[in-house]
Write a structure and sequence with these properties.
8 helices; globular; alpha+beta
Length: about 210
């Protein structure tokens, strides 16, 4: 079986990189916007994230305001994964700019776009997978952890969260990411059933400044 394909006949458990970009402010945006334009705008933003996927991560789910990317048995360098986050973040904000510069519409869906922001959860763990029709469906505790971490105590709108499990798997120190990416802070949150989960996070607003995205 290929490292990056599900088995069509049985459930398989493999180590995997999990990366979830999630649009912050999505619920408020949809509530205040016309459905027709908001659907088009959100689709363009999600497509911009997928199009900037230079590590060839696979898409398991598009979850309304988030995309579940994964890669079984990943051997990417931690610098490449940090760079992947940079590219997706930059592409998202450039698309926001493009939509506004090329659109004179003042409806809620178009005028409120700048209220949207992007956050990331990056995790590594044991992931189960099975083919359901033509889609690889992921399951297991580490998939749950990645999703639960989208709700956390980080006091930022835009950030990247690297789990302690990710840091340990890639045999690196947070300082290595600091040097090539941004300064990271260590924190943790307590979750029902899952217990205490440790992670490192960085402010993505630093990337906007470095890339001159306003």
């Amino acid at each position: 079986m290929s490292d990056n394909l599900c088995d069509k006949n049985e459930a398989v458990v493999q180590p995997a990189l999990i990366l979830i970009p999630d649009i912050s402010g999505f619920t408020q945006y949809m509530k205040a916007s016309s459905i027709a334009h908001s659907q088009v705008n959100i689709a363009r933003l999600l497509e911009s994230i997928i199009d900037s996927n230079y590590l060839d991560l696979l898409v398991s789910e598009i979850e309304g305001d988030a995309i579940l990317f994964y890669k079984f048995n990943d051997n990417s360098a931690v610098r490449d994964i940090a760079e992947q986050v940079k590219k997706m973040h930059t592409s998202f904000h450039q698309t926001l700019i493009d939509i506004n510069e090329n659109n004179d519409c003042q409806c809620g869906a178009c005028s409120l776009l700048y209220n949207l922001s992007l956050k990331f959860v990056v995790h590594y763990g044991e992931v189960g997978s099975v083919m359901v029709k033509d889609r690889c469906k992921l399951f297991g505790g580490d998939v749950i952890i990645a999703h639960r971490l989208l709700k956390n105590s980080i006091p930022l709108q835009e950030y990247v969260l690297f789990t302690d499990a990710f840091i340990k798997k890639y045999n690196t120190q947070s300082s290595l990411i600091d040097e090539d990416f941004m300064k990271l802070e260590k924190s943790s949150d307590e979750y029902d059933v899952l217990g205490n989960i440790e992670y490192y996070f960085g402010n993505l607003n630093e990337l906007k400044e470095n890339h001159k995205i306003l």
